[in-house]
Design brief:
single chain; alpha/beta; 10 helices; 22 strands; 29% strand; globular
Length: 471
């Protein structure tokens, strides 16, 4: 097909739809163009940035006509920050397009032609819903026109600029982060600037301050502040910890993680306690969880409870069922199902997460769960003696990373041959790829697919899918 547009061309476009990753979709003679920050119904003047054989990419130069669906974004940073891409749509419209995208992925990419995805479960709280936020320091502030021109250009504390790993947008607050975030950021920023604590340069790997991670137990109101640095100098941070603990009553933990590696990770080699305990606690349903700085915990507590209720309903474990929970993290799903099953076995690659899972089981008095550390891409081949010692699963829970499952793991699952599979995914495009194999080669029925909006205003969506063995 001959491309009807060229790179660097300016063109008027009408945004017709919303794509899976949050970009607007326009067409020129059936040629798809993905438009950054496009809202369905807009007419825009756009600049073509890429013109590939099957699709193009463009940015908006000017909005010629606003969409009837368009609303004013509540956050002043939304035009610049890549996080809340859907803030210009009402929440009802956001849910409509998220459901449509999942339905299209199942029917087109997955070739489940006559399969209907259930209506999306929306969030009750659409602002300040995150219980964890990772902010980045940078000595290169992202500059856009004259926006916040009075701020220093060599210091920023906020979120990485879209498509840029070394610049940060300096934020005064974030409307999806814990409510205390704005006050915490202000104290840390002001002290750092007044005392010449240098932000990290991600290119040259110089500077001291790397990340500010804020975590909150939504059901306990406990807040943790984790300041990630490149050097082990906790004495430089102790005054900040003192100010934070004196001014924000519900801060129960302040730690300093020392990350000497060159990646952007917030997980480090050394952890210093600056105030309180080195963990906070939260509840999901009736269960209590201890959350340490490196622990994985569902980022939206209120929606996690709905998600886990859905997983339990879809799995429907009985008292004689053995459940395996692959990619079990800190054991939150496994523990949620334990009371209904004979036994739950969790497997996870991160050793600290397994230790947290065991501790969480002990703290909640749950004795019919076992957790094992292992790489799921290799464990079936490298540790056959472990697997031979375990009872085979009646029900398999799979909650993989965005990339989906490794092909070898898929083959191993087919050999395990559980009666039911519940596949939980934050990336339905890789999910439907894996589901196609389970259905075609494993002899499973695709029973249900239920989207859950864990992250309002973003293009991310969680989908819980149930499969059962054909009889």
């Amino acid at each position: 097909m001959e491309r009807p547009v060229k790179k660097k061309q300016e063109i008027d476009l009408i945004i017709e739809d919303l794509g899976f990753r949050g970009k607007g979709i326009a067409k020129v003679d059936d040629y798809l163009i993905f438009v950054k920050n496009g809202v369905p119904g807009q007419k825009v003047k756009a600049l073509i940035k890429k013109a590939k054989s099957s699709f193009g990419e463009a940015i908006i130069l000017e909005v010629l006509e606003k969409s009837k669906k368009e609303i004013d974004a509540k956050c002043s940073y939304s035009p610049y920050c890549g996080g809340c891409k859907h803030q210009k749509l009402s929440y009802k419209e956001q849910l409509f397009y998220l459901h449509k995208q999942v339905q299209d992925l199942y029917q087109r990419l997955g070739s489940f032609k006559n399969f209907e995805v259930a209506e999306i479960i929306g969030a009750d709280i659409i602002f300040n819903y995150r219980n964890k936020m990772e902010f980045s320091f940078s000595n290169h502030r992202w500059l856009t026109d004259d926006f916040e021109k009075e701020k220093p250009i060599d210091f920023a504390l906020g979120l990485r600029a879209p498509g840029n790993f070394w610049k940060s947008i300096d934020l005064d607050d974030c409307l999806i982060a814990p409510k205390e975030s704005g006050d915490i950021m202000k104290i840390v920023r002001n002290y750092a600037l007044a005392n010449n604590l240098t932000p990290y340069d991600q290119k040259k790997h110089t500077g001291f301050l790397r990340h500010l991670v804020i975590r909150k137990g939504e059901n306990t109101n406990q807040v943790m502040v984790n300041i990630v640095t490149s050097k082990n100098k906790p004495e430089l941070l102790q005054p900040i910890a003192d100010i934070l603990s004196q001014n924000i009553d519900n801060i129960k933990s302040i730690v300093n993680t020392v990350a000497t590696n060159y990646s952007g990770t917030t997980i480090g080699d050394i952890q210093n306690s600056l105030y309180g305990k080195n963990y906070i606690e939260d509840k999901l349903g009736k269960l209590n969880y201890r959350i340490s700085p490196a622990s994985f915990f569902q980022t939206n507590t209120k929606m996690a409870e709905k998600l886990y209720d859905l997983i339990r309903k879809t799995a429907n474990p009985q008292k004689d069922d053995v459940v395996w929970d692959l990619y079990c993290g800190t054991g939150s799903i496994a523990l949620y199902l334990a009371s209904a099953a004979k036994e739950v076995i969790g497997i996870e690659i991160v050793p600290d997460a397994i230790e947290n899972a065991k501790q969480n089981a002990q703290n909640n008095g749950i004795t019919n769960v076992r957790f094992f550390n292992g790489n799921l891409d290799k464990i079936f081949r490298q540790q056959p003696e472990l697997l031979d010692s375990l009872p085979r699963p009646d029900i398999l829970i799979i909650d993989p990373p965005r990339a989906g499952m490794h092909p070898k793991l898929l083959n191993n699952i087919l050999q395990l041959n559980p009666s039911k599979i519940v596949y939980v995914s934050c990336n339905p495009s890789t999910q439907v790829r894996d589901l196609r194999i389970l259905v075609d080669e494993g002899g499973y029925n695709l029973d249900s697919a239920q989207p859950v909006d864990m992250f309002p205003h973003t293009p991310h969506i969680e989908v819980v899918t149930g499969l059962s063995k054909k009889v």
